[in-house]
Amino acid sequence: MSLPARLRALAVDPDFRAGARDMASPSLGLAAWGLVTGVAMVKSGLGLPLAFGMSLLVFAGSAQLTALPLIAAGAPLWVLLATAFCVNLRFVIFSAQWRHYWGHLPLWQRLRNAYFAADLNFVYFVRRWPDPVPAPGQQRYFWGGVAVNWPAWQLTSFTGILLADRIPTHWGLGFAGVLALLGLAYSLLAEKMLWWVALTAAAVSIATYALPLKLNILCAIVAAGAVGWWLEARQASNAQKAREARR
Question: pTM (2 decimals)?
Answer without folding.
Answer: 0.73
